[in-house]
Amino acid sequence: MPFQIKNLNKTNAIMNRFNIIFSAGLALVISGLAVSCTTGRGGQDNVDSLSISLSSDKNSIFADGSDAATFTVVNNSSREDITDQAQIFCVSGDQETELTAPKFSTETPGSYSFYAKYNEAISKEISVTAARVDADASSQYTLSAAKNMIYNDGGDFAILTLTDAEGNDVTELGQFYADGEPVEGNRFSTTKGSFSPVVISATVAGSPVKNTVEVTATSSYGFTSRALLEEITRTNCEYCPIMIRVISELASDNPETVIAYNVHNTVSSVYESWYSEKSQEWSRLFCDFINVGANAGDKKYTGAPRSFLNRSKDDYTASENLAQTFRNAAINGAKDVAIAMWSSTPDANTIKLNATVGTKKDFNGKIVAVLTDNGIEAAQNGEMINMFRVMKAYYPGVEGQAAAFAKGKPQHFEAEFNLQETPVTSIENCELIVFVTDDADGLCENVQVAHVGEAKGY
Question: Which of 26, 362, 378, 415 sits at 20 to 30 Å (Cα–Cα) from 69?
Answer without folding.
Answer: 415
